[in-house]
Structure formats: structure tokens, C-alpha cells
């Protein structure tokens, strides 16, 4: 009978050791999973930050390109307008001169 009790006690101790080992492995697995999740979240946050920075830079480049295009168009328009006005000066000067001479006569 004592042998049976000893055997049951040994099996119980063995089962308790298995339970403790299982708990320990489960805790290690949870700790590892948490670390992996934290690492993943950190990496994704960095990717998102980089993506946002790239989109911001791209938007700024687009804005500056559009601004430069508008400035270039305005300069070209101003040059054309000035050139057209310069062409009108001799004819206008003749007209004014003719009117001045007509007043003097």
C-alpha cells in the first residue's frame, strides 16, 4: 500500500513539475509575443512616420514647382506686355508730336 501511495505522490510531483514547466513556457511565450508585437508596432510607427514625411516633402515639392511655374508664366507675360508696349511707343510718339505741331500751326 505504501508503494502505491509513494507512486501516487511521485506522479503528483511529476504532474506539478509539468504544470510549472508549462506555466513557465507559457509565460516565456507571452513575453516573447509581447516583445515581437512591440517591435512590430515600433517598426510600423517608423514606417508611417517616414511615409508621412515623404508625402509632406512631395507636397512641398509640388507646391514649389507650381509656384515656380506661375512665377515663370507671369514673367513671360510681363515681358510680352512690355515688348508690345515698347512697339507702341514710336507710333504714340509720332501721334503726340503731330498733335503738338498741329497746335503750333
Short description:
This protein is mainly α and 105 residues long.
How does this structure look, described?
This protein has one helix spanning 2-104. The protein is mainly α. The mean pLDDT is 92.
Helix/strand layout:
Layout: H1 2-104
Overview features:
single chain; 105 residues
Round the Cα radius of gyration to an integer and report it. 45 Å
Which H/E pattern describes the elements?
A: H
Cα separation of the termini: 153 Å
- What structural category characterises the helix and strand content? mainly alpha
The share of residues in helices is over 70%
Average pLDDT figure? 92
How many distinct beta strands?
Answer: 0
pLDDT < 50 stretches: none
